[in-house]
Each structure stands twice: as structure tokens, then as C-alpha cells.
Amino acid sequence: MAEKGQIELITTPFYHPIIPLLIDSNSALRASPGLPLPRTFSYPEDAAEQTVRSINQFRRYFGSFPLGVWPPEQAVSPEALAMFAEYGFLWTVSDEDILARSLNTEIYRDGSGHVLNADVLYRPYKAKVQDREINVVFRDRHLSDRIGFVYHQMCLDHAVDDLIQRFHKIRESVVGHHGAQLVTIALDGENAWEWYPNDKQGFLHRLYRRLSADSLLKTVTLAEFLAAHPPERELTHLHSGSWVDHSVTRWIGSESKNRLWEMLLDARKMLEEVRGTISLERFLRAKENLLIAEGSDYTWWVDSMPYYLSAPFEALFHKHLLNTYLECGQLLPAELEAAVIRPHHGEPAWMDGPLTGPTAMVQTKVNSFKLC
User: Fold this and answer.
1) Nearest-CA neighbor of 296 among 91, 45, 75?
2) First-to-final CA distance of the chain
3) Distance of CA 286 to CAs 51, 211, 294, 328, Å?
4) Structural domain that includes position 288
5) CA distances (Å), 31 to each of 76, 242, 249, 271, in order?
6) Residue 200 domain-assigned?
7) CATH classification at residue 227
8) DSSP code of 152?
9) Same domain, yes or no: 218 and 267
10) If DSSP codes are grouped into helix, strand and coil, which group holds residue 138?
11) Which of 11, 196, 212, 282 could be 200's S-S partner, Cβ–Cβ 3.0 to 4.6 Å?
């Protein structure tokens, strides 16, 4: 499909870290002044390694260079985009709120969710960051969320009708504006498709049949669109944040999230201290576990979701950091032996290992009975 031009394949930093926080955890203060933060974590070389790994894997699998990069959780900062540009990416994507704050404006909508200042949102931008340039598109959050959370509850034909009608409403709203207009829908697919019947095939087949038959709407890949219509507008300021409340507080700033960052920082410093004193093989295994622990899911869950949803992720985080110390032949820090988050009153503590296999996330009491 990619060779036919029907789709464009892109990549994302390898273990899905929040790139702005890897580069400098203090960047969280830009969107959230006064946010309580842990000691500074600043390892731009780790952000680079996570990105280069994804490029290399892409090239091994597909034999080409990815032109687009998905920033994990659509989290961007000037430093993150400068790094993406440095490694040769043509474009990246973020949320409409990031655009609004970068332009010091608002995306205005009517009661039905239609954008009133459509010419602001529905076009690509060229971001100038640290003497580098990269193209950025910003998603229509309302349309993305309708796919993610609304359409699976509707009759599929009605859902597709609604989306097509909204596309035409956008088209009518930008008539007369200079330049080509682009509508971007962007979301983590696994959050949407698991709710659709028949693994979303009915919805997507209906949608693309309608789009193929519509002479006024055209589907494009980002690289195709940018080649034909380079951005006419520039961003001289880029807001630092993600799709969640245009900040990164989902991953840092609470007591338990900060403690995880402190543990990660201590392990990262230890790794530098033992560099050259252990075998390369053991160092690389230790580094692998630390890179995994830099992923976003651990701090996403902790302090943000119920205990029994969060505890397995914290346990897995501990396991990878423990592996880092063990590979380096170092004593295990006491804080890694105890869980950060605690069950609420009346909840049993999470006692299973993080890799024991499928586990019921909702704990229930089951009466035993005899089969006759």
C-alpha cells in the first residue's frame, strides 16, 4: 500500500518516551509554571538514541527512510522538533491546542464542534526551531475524538455520514482562503478500534468508499501534500506540551510520578559511573532496560488511574531498573524494593510479578463451587 501511495508509513521514538522530558524535565514548567518537579533529568542523548533506533528499525523493515515522525503523546517542544529536524524528518504532528498556544490565539468552535476560524487550523506550518526547520500539522481534536470515542456508539452508516458532512462543512468554511487546506485526524488507534464491531473494518470500508466517490474531498499522504503545497505560514514560537491539557503533567509533577523520575535519574547516573568498568555486553543490556524504563506508560498510569490499573506498570518499571543495577553489578537501592503507590483502604496490595502473564485488572470475589 505504501508503494502504491495509498498510505504513508512513519515511526515514533523507540520505547515511546516523552521526548521533551528526556531532553530536559524542566521544560514541563513552560506550560505549568510552579509545577513541583523532581531533580532535573536531562539526557538529550537518550532522546536521540530512542529516535535513531526507530529510524534504523524502520529502514531494516521497509528499506527506506521515514519522512514523518509521531511524537509520543503528541508531546513537542522546540528542542524536540529541532532534534527531529536534525535527523532528517520532513514532518511531525501535534494537537490543535499546541498550535493555538504557539500562535497565542484560540481555536473557536460553534455548538456543533465546527471550527469558526478554520483557516488557522486546516493548513500545515513550518516550524523554525534552533536554526532548523520542520513541517508540522495539527490535528482536529474534535474529529479525532469523534472517531476515538463517539462513532463506535452510532450506527456505522450514520457515523460515516456525520464525518463526511463535517468534512464538507470544513470545505465550505475555507472557500476563498488562499492556499490548499488540509484536515488532519490523528489519534492512537488502539484506543479507538477495540470498541468498533468487526475490528473497525465496517467503519473504515464505508468511510473510504464514500471518500473515493466524493469529487470534492481527496485523501492524501502528508509527504504528498507537502510536496505539492509547502507551508506558507511559519511558527516562530512553539508551545511545549502534549495532547493532554497542552502540558506534560500527565507524566510528571505529582508526588509518585516524581519519585519514579528520581529513581530513573539515579539509575541513569549510575550507568554513566560504571561505563567502561563492566563488559560492553552487560553495559548494553543495562542500557536497554533503562531505555525501556524511559517509556511514557509507567508515569502515565501512576497517580492518574486506579491502583489496580497502575500497580502492574509500576512493578514493571521497578523490574527494568532492577535489571539495570543487576547488569552493572551494583547494590540495589532500597527504594526500588518498595512500591511507590499504595492500595486504598480495603484494596488488596498488588503482589504478582509484572511479567506473570494475563491478570484480572478488576479484582472480584468469586464463590467456589463444585462441578457435578
Assistant:
1) 75
2) 55
3) 19, 49, 13, 7
4) 255-337
5) 11, 10, 9, 31
6) yes
7) 3.20.110.20
8) G
9) no
10) strand
11) 196
Q: What is the C-alpha to C-alpha distance for residues 296 and 367, in angstroms, rounded to an integer? A: 38
Q: What pLDDT, on a 0 to 100 scale, did the predictor assign at position 359?
A: 53
Tell me which amino acid residue 87 is: Y
Residue 230, phi then psi, degrees to nearest 5 = -55, 145
Yes or no: say if 184 and 124 are a contact pair by the CB < 8 Å rule: no
All three cell numbers of 329, joined, read 553489578
CA distances from 190 to 149, 187, 196, 203 (A): 12, 9, 11, 15
Q: Which of 185, 200, 235 finishes a domain?
A: 235
For residue 28, what is its C-alpha cell?
A: 514541563
Reading across the β-sheet that carries 234-235, which strands appear in turn? 68-69, 91-95, 132-139, 125-129, 234-235
CB 253 within 8 A of CB 28: yes
Alpha helices per DSSP H over the chain: 19-23, 44-62, 78-86, 96-103, 118-121, 141-145, 156-174, 190-193, 201-213, 222-228, 255-274, 280-293, 297-301, 307-327
Q: Is the pLDDT of residue 354 over 70?
A: no
Phi, psi of 69 (to 5 degrees): -135, 135
105, 158: one domain: yes
CB atoms within 10 A of CB 120: 19
Q: Give Rg (Cα) of the chain.
A: 23
For cell 468534512, the residue is: 167
Cell for 292?
525501556
Cell numbers representing residue 195 in the block: 470498541
**6 belongs to a structural domain:** no
Element (H, E) at 126: strand 125-129
pLDDT digits (tens, 9 = 90+) for 286-329: 999 999 999 999 999 999 999 988 999 999 999 999 999 999 99
pTM of the predicted structure, to 2 decimals:
0.92
Q: Dihedrals φ, ψ of 303, to 5°?
A: 70, 5
